[in-house]
């Protein structure tokens, strides 16, 4: 019998995805560049379902029913191209090739174009949830031609995470849309993590309490609006004791954060689109700063001239930090959804932002209770220009804005760096301001570069003869 679907690339992700598909009753053809991984999957988990192993790509392709559905789960970049090049000559018109790795979306657009010309449906598919998600239900963000989702969708929805019975998988949009949305998901993940880290730092410095005590606070927060996977694991991590030293685990971890690049891609794309995603950008730069060892070493001489912490009402302070965290988090998501809207318009992807929030409720790293609120906001208004301006979010952030200001002011006064809290508040004040000092920027630009300006009192484009008689001309 032929397999219903194939998976090539059987490292942690591909192996678990293949097992997940087999456990749902589908027969799965499996293949990997080095045959050992294929053999060990059959040896270790062959009893979980129907696996059809092949050593060669030709046998693998021949073992799948037509039109074929083949998931590629290999290292992103050149490896993905190598696998595509090997498979394509073996495929038939109408077969569906799915790249489930972390591809950069411009690569996906390029691959989709090239393969469409050859009659192959190419689906760039974001998968989030790490190895655990791949096995037990990830969040799945497939792009590509809509007709491929007709065939593929039922399997993806079967193997995805479910929240209230609703699958965390849906068609995202043409060509690179799926990988794009996965990229922004990762960018938001960066912001979420940085905000949590800043909250932890404020509690630690403000209250002088232990990691375990902070862990208890996070565990409590996880019972309310902040309920999310990242808050939950933070509580878990903070209560963990290092076996070797008996100290709190976080206290023995070196404070230099690394990154694999999806945060950077998100920020680079936002710069290209001109969308201010300050929370994600600050989170990405905060990781970079933490790893800037020569600068941090040299920087130790800089005077602080900071105040001293003197928190008199412990509970009120904790509640302020919680509200500042929630408000900053809403800003980070609002900005990320703006970026999705801008890219969707630029590439004609027609992405349903409410559906993206829905499929992020389970399986993925940023899964959170409040994503329901985002889905509801876009149900109220699919074209909402600013998530913060949805009535629910306006109220919740408005209720917390005084706490947010107190926390950012305290952090500045006491010399605690809170780039994500502070920049999110600055964005909030910027986006709600009736007027911004950009009038002066425009005047300066016209002065030194004759870049022209518009007036508040009449239509048209104007330039002042700054080096001459300062008369104004209409362009
Ligand atoms: P890796 O990214 O470590 O990639 C290893 C796999 O790629 C192996 O199967 C390897 O084959 C194959 N490979 C590498 N180079 C080539 C090549 N030139 N030709 C053919 N095959 C090649 O595996 P992961 O399972 O960690 O990740 C797979 C994909 O999923 C990546 O794109 C990753 O970014 C993405 N991803 C990973 C997540 C995670 O949590 N790890 C989460 C979400 C997505 P061989 O065994 O022969 O070396």
Could you walk me through the main structural features you see in this protein, from its secondary elements to its overall organization?
It contains 20 helices and eleven strands. 55% of the residues lie in helices and 9% in strands. With 475 residues, it is an alpha/beta fold. β10 (462-464) and β11 form a beta hairpin. A seven-stranded mixed β-sheet has the order 3-2-1-4-5-6-7, with helices on both faces. The protein is globular. NADPH dihydro-nicotinamide-adenine-dinucleotide phosphate binds next to α1, α4 and α6. NADPH dihydro-nicotinamide-adenine-dinucleotide phosphate is lined by residues 9-14, 32-34, 37, 73-76, 79, 82-83, 101-102, 127, 130-131. Pathway: Carbohydrate degradation; pentose phosphate pathway; D-ribulose 5-phosphate from D-glucose 6-phosphate (oxidative stage): step 3/3. Its EC number is 1.1.1.44. NADP(+) binds at residues 9-14, 32-34, 74-76, 102. Keywords: Gluconate utilization, NADP, Oxidoreductase, Pentose shunt. The active site is at 182 (proton acceptor), 189 (proton donor).
Helix vs. strand class? alpha/beta
Query: Could you tell me the number of beta strands?
Result: 11
Query: What percentage of amino acids are in beta strands?
Result: 5-15%
Low-confidence stretches: none
The strands making up the biggest β-sheet line up spatially as: 3-2-1-4-5-6-7
> What sort of overall outline do the alpha carbons produce when their principal axes are compared?
globular
Bound molecules: NADPH dihydro-nicotinamide-adenine-dinucleotide phosphate
Distance between the termini: 73 Å
Mean pLDDT: 97
Report the major sheet.
Answer: 7 strands, mixed
Helix content: 55-70%
Tally of contiguous helical segments: 20
Radius of gyration (Å): 25 Å
């Amino acid at each position: 019998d032929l397999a219903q679907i194939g998976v090539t690339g059987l490292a942690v992700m591909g192996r678990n995805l293949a097992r997940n598909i087999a456990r749902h009753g589908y027969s799965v053809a499996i293949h990997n560049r080095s045959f050992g991984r294929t053999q060990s999957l059959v040896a270790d988990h062959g009893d979980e379902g129907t696996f059809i192993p092949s050593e060669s790509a030709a046998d693998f392709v021949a073992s799948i029913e037509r039109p074929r559905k083949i998931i590629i789960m290999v290292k992103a970049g050149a490896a993905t191209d190598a696998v595509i090049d090997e498979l394509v000559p073996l495929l038939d018109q109408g077969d569906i090739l799915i790249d489930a790795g972390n591809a950069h979306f411009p690569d996906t657009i390029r691959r989709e174009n090239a393969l469409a010309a050859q009659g192959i449906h190419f689906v760039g598919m974001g998968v989030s949830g790490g190895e655990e998600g791949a096995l037990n239900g990830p969040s799945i963000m497939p792009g590509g031609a809509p007709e491929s989702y007709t065939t593929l969708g039922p399997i993806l929805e079967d193997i995805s995470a479910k929240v209230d019975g609703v699958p965390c998988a849906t068609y995202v949009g043409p060509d690179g849309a799926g990988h794009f949305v996965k990229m922004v998901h990762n960018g938001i993940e960066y912001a979420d993590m940085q905000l949590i880290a800043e909250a932890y730092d404020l509690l630690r410095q403000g209250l002088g309490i232990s990691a375990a005590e902070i862990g208890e606070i996070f565990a409590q927060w996880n019972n309310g609006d902040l309920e999310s996977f990242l808050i939950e694991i933070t509580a878990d991590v903070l209560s963990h004791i290092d076996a070797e030293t008996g100290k709190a685990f976080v206290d023995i971890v070196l404070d230099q954060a690394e990154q694999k690049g999806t945060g950077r891609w998100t920020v680079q794309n936002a710069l290209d689109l001109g969308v201010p995603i300050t929370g994600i950008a600050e989170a990405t730069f905060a990781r970079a700063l933490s790893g800037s060892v020569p600068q941090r070493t040299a920087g130790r001489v800089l005077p602080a001239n900071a105040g001293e912490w003197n928190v008199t009402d412990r509970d009120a302070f904790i509640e302020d930090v919680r509200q500042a965290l929630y408000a900053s988090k809403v800003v980070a998501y609002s900005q990320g959804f703006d970026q999705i809207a801008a890219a969707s318009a630029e590439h004609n992807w027609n992405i349903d932002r409410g559906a993206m929030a829905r499929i992020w409720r389970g399986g993925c790293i940023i899964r959170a209770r409040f994503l329901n609120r985002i889905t509801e906001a876009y149900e109220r208004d699919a074209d909402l220009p600013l998530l913060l301006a949805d009535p629910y979010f306006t109220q919740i952030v408005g209720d917390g804005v005084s706490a947010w200001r107190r926390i950012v002011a305290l952090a500045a006064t006491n010399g605690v760096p809170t780039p994500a809290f502070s920049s999110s508040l600055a964005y909030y004040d910027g986006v709600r301001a009736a007027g911004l000092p950009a009038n002066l920027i425009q005047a300066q630009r016209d002065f030194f570069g004759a870049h022209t300006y518009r007036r508040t009192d009449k239509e048209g484009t104007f330039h002042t003869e700054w080096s001459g008689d300062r008369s104004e001309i209409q362009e």
